Amino acid sequence: MPIRHTRLPRGGVMSVQTVCIGWHWQPYRYTRVAEDVNGRPVAPFPGWMVELGRRALVEAYQDPAAGQDWTPDTALINFYQGEAKLGMHQDKDEKSDAPVVSLSIGDTCVFRFGNTETRTRPWTDVELASGDLFVFGGPSRFAYHGVPKVRPGTCDPACGLAGGRLNITMRVTGLSG
Ligand code: MD3
Ligand code: FE
């Protein structure tokens, strides 16, 4: 399935481009085929990424048992090119409160981490650089968050991207089939 700008239900188009594995995400739903793109089944979720995510949970929680029952079945891969940004939102399309693991590659961005009640302040802005990995578990899982800015040209040449920013989020959908 090719990467694409997701169409929003009210007619807008996201400036970020997204491609999914495991399950195909559209606002408010997950499906096994990319019906809004080309009707093709999405690529399977690779076992090595399950293991990478589990290692992240073990490190984040400093608990060798963390992640043993955590099996991500989808990843949303966002690509930020040019002026692309992501407005403040909650991730509520998964039927699971399991942690989300986020891995950033490429240009540094400003990540805005808000609160669970409103999409407004208080929030905390943090820079996410290439190689940064975050685990959002517990109450953070349902906090509002967004990416107001990417800093062009801040990527280490060794990151392997010609420009822009990639973010991979591993998730548990809580869906079956
Ligand atoms: C906190 N992605 O894919 S990554 C998203 O950089 C998303 O592309 C941003 O927000 C990006 O939904 C932020 C960090 C992140 C990802 C998912 C979360 C933080 C999260 C889900 C719940 C809580
Ligand atoms: Fe999100």
TrEMBL record:
Biological process per Gene Ontology, one example term: oxidative RNA demethylation
UniProt keyword Iron, yes or no: yes
MF GO annotations: broad specificity oxidative DNA demethylase activity; ferrous iron binding; oxidative RNA demethylase activity
Entry-linked InterPro entries: Alkb, AlkB-like, AlkB-like_sf, Oxoglu/Fe-dep_dioxygenase_dom
PROSITE patterns recorded: FE2OG_OXY
Domain Fe2OG dioxygenase residues, every copy: 71-174
Cofactor(s) it depends on: Fe(2+)
Binding site for Fe cation: H89, D91, H145
Name of the protein in question: Alkylated DNA repair protein
GO CC, one annotated term: cytoplasm
Keywords of this entry: Dioxygenase, Iron, Metal-binding, Oxidoreductase
PANTHER family: ALKYLATED DNA REPAIR PROTEIN ALKB-RELATED, NUCLEIC ACID DIOXYGENASE ALKBH1
Note on how the cofactor is bound: Binds 1 Fe(2+) ion per subunit.
